[in-house]
Records
---
Amino acid sequence: MQTFRSNGRVVKRYPIRSGDRLRAGLVAACAFPAPRGSQVLVDEMAEALVREGVDAHLIAPLDPRARERPYRTHAVEPAVPRARAGGVTGLLRPLVDATLTARLAQTVEREGLQVLHAHNYEGLVTSLAVRALRGVPVVYHSHNVFADELPTYAPRALRAAARSFGAWCDRTFPRMADRVVTLSDDVAEHLQSRGVEPHRICVIPPGLDPTPFEEHRATLRKRRAIFTGNLDGYQNLELLLAAWRLVEKNDPSSELVLVTHVQRGGASRRLRRSNWGERVRVQIATSLDQVARELGSAMVGVSPRSSWSGFPIKTLNYMASGTPTIALVASSKGVRPGETGWVVEQETPEALAAALVGALASPRECARRGRAGLQVVREHHCWNDLAPLIADVARAAIADGEQAPARARRVA
């Protein structure tokens, strides 16, 4: 272990020795387990790093009823009562962030973690605070651009303020990380324009394990469109439901299924039931197996979100199930128009409805594009290929950090 002074504080660094396993902490402020995109991504990433030979640790709010994982877990207290729903209430969030910081600092010290993989902004800010205390380098995994996504959670009157605050965060925090991983080129370019040095950015697409979807892939599918995911504002479900009312006029035999982990009461608070079409069904899913079963019976999946910076994990779920995707152009990452799905250029109910009607009327084309999507997942989103890249980024961050003592002495 090395020690050096940073801003007057003695901090510790745990270097990699020959034959050592890389000891990495994955930091997230979101509750686990939950069938949401970020949680699924972090969970599968941790499992993939373990297979890569990394000693992986998850530090996050963890439901004590969660099943044992192949990686080490360090639960953040107080326990989050809504962990199974995947949400952390607004009143609890500052307390969770504070306890996450304390828990992370303890875990780094006790386990000798050599690098932190910080997911989203709360994970990043927490990890940067612990880096100041313990000297452990930080790899920031950007799931979105804050100026793009934060306004979708805010009331209309506060969206401009939310966008300004998000833009300040984008300029301030990512460039403080030792390394940055983005899921797509456009986010990498955006963060570079906000001050992140190009050599510290690496683009690694999200991975997905297609195994849970295999047994539910059906050859004959129902005349059904499907949406899977949470019901937060950025999902843009109002547009989807408006488009579906137009679909019903042209094709009254088709069905739309909304598969979510949010209980029906939560759904009704966000979407007024009177606005739903006659053939719209809400399916509450408590496991990935249930989601896979619903996907396996649908002809086409829908991604109506208008936020441009995220990479919808639902798109990978659709492709892993052999289901093609209809997506707005803003959320079309992973969709190859004409090959694995359809991309809607205009954000209007009419444009989205036209794509839905066309797809549901073409079962053979849906099947062809679904098969192509499955092949894309296998070739470009396999964790066995991506985990070594993530481990390499971590080692590069550690190598950068080993120069920190010299830099600190020169400054002093």
---
Amino acid sequence: MKVIIRKNSAEGSLWAAHYIADRIKEKAARSADPFVLGLCTGSTPIETYAELIRMVKAGEISFKNVVSFNMDEYVGLPKTHPESYWSFMHKYLFDHIDEPAENIHILNGNAPDLNAECEAYEKAIAAAGGFDLFLGGIGEDGHIAFNEPFSSLNSHTRVVTLTEDTRIVNSRFFNNDMNQVPAQALSVGVATVTGAREVVILAFGPKKAKAVHDAVEGPVSHMCTVSALQLHEFGTIVCDDAAASGLQESSRAYFAAVEAAEKR
């Protein structure tokens, strides 16, 4: 695992956007196969998406040969609802870049058979060649996607029931009314994410400090599902100073030294 620490979310988001762009260009230079990218929602990746949009419009990067799969979607929420993840992704990324519509994959929370939808999603990921890179966020309790504490670290895409804490946190998007937040969602599993060839997790702000500490310095545990990244050969957490504040100084010094050495 690597940890990239920047002063604030703006600097961390820029690092992530340029890292993703570099990986897309690197694969394009050696292969005609599409770059398969996992994507997340929420407020955390918005600045990263904004920089990717800028780069596309400036001609610095293209998504024409990118195939994307999103992490999750609410069950029962119309896709055109302003708080659906389908709407979020189009508002903050897809409507502004050149990724072909047929390359965009988002779970259908209104599918007649939700279990079949999840099984088909896993098969589509495999058919695309598996993830080259998965970009994710981290919950305050250390969850990735909707893999709440006690989710199996071997889990794959499935129907999940959201905890009251998660619904309360997400109620800020639903007029601060937890009862408007769907009780279930479709979510990729922990193993779906860690099966990617690279994983980049974003964590910004003081509320993420405990989760970052548990992910980096704590044990691998289903109580903190992002801790599974410790077992990944190419896992990276990108955080700001506030989110890294719970790490030991020796840990921060180690990761800074590794990054400096890789730049030489």
---
Amino acid sequence: MNHAKLQIHGLNTNGLDGRGIGVAVLDTGCFPHEDLDHRIAAFCDIVQKRPAPYDDNGHGTHVCGIIGGTGRSEEGLYCGIAPGCHLIPVKVLDRRGNGYSSDVLAGLRWIRENRVRLNIRIVNISVGSFCRRNMSENSALVRGVNAAWDDGLVVVVAAGNMGPKSGTITTPGISRKVITVGCSDDHKEVNVMGNRMIDYSGRGPTNACICKPDIVAPGASIISCANQSGKYTGKSGTSMATPLVSGAIALLLEKYPEMNNRDVKLHLRDRALDIGLPKNQQGWGLLDVERLLADVV
């Protein structure tokens, strides 16, 4: 994952590591990899109701490692963005990476109910649906993420891998409230779920004519934790770009804990780097963590 960080910046975080910030991850679960260093603060399994952390797919572990892995198993080589944060994985997808909207909504409710106890500030959702009945802002998934946002949580959602046509942002990334993340490097051909893809990052506008995504980050061939002890693997897609942004926000909230979710969104907008792509492909621009963390003047 150093590979990804170098594409964004030199990543001088001035000692910030996300300490004290809780990041909930709605995904396939999380394997207790050494790089997560006992920082899985809680685990909720909506799918099978098992009490201990596990990941029978690997996607969620990979996402968690991008957010907060220490890289310890490879002497720091594959360090996540915020290796001091604590993680709250919520399993809403099965071993094939599939799931039901009702399980995602149940996971969101659990996060909202436990946000104070676990100091959850950020919700990472590298999950999306491209079903016609879910494409409305009145859909249950959009209402669910909006309710989490209204509770004060910073909700960060993948734009999906249905591009390059316009109107291909997946739900709940179509929500006008949440921070929707696309890939900055989808011009590179990658393997996503066994399919060779290029120019796949979801493009706006939404059906309600909202410009999306909000921001982009690297998502091609990101190396992070596997769901096996001491192992790493590469994955690609907006699912990988999204936790880069969530990790950066954890650093920002460590530095400025008084920021609310609206402050965070505006700060991301103001510090993004315009890379010259259409607005409905890049949004505000590329995540630049050093600019994001620079002192507010």
